[in-house]
Amino acid sequence: MGGQIRGIPGAVLGWDMTAALAMASAMGISPRAVVELLPVIEAVMVRKLNEEREGRRDG
User: Counting Cβ atoms within 10 Å, is residue 26 exposed (0-12), middle (13-18) or buried (19+)?
Assistant: First the structure.
């Protein structure tokens, strides 16, 4: 999802969900599963990406 990240300078805000759903569909993944699971996964990934960015700025 690297190219599908939405952000502002200095922070990741989230994923482009339209692109994520399209990719999941192309991979044959159930849209129902994506709608249930992706928001939870997105929240964790956004938090971790922002933590990594903060760590690089501090160190």
Answer: exposed
Contact by Cβ (8 Å): 13, 6: yes
Taking the alpha carbons of 27, 39, 55, 57 in that order, is the dihedral positive or negative? positive
5-40 pLDDT tens trace: 677 778 888 888 888 889 999 999 998 999 999 999
Q: How many residues does the chain have?
A: 59
Q: Which structure tokens are listed for 9?
A: 């300078």
Q: What does DSSP assign to residue 30?
A: -
The answer for residues whose C-beta is within 8 angstroms of residue 18's C-beta and 6 or more apart is none
Token code pair at residue 37: 């699971």
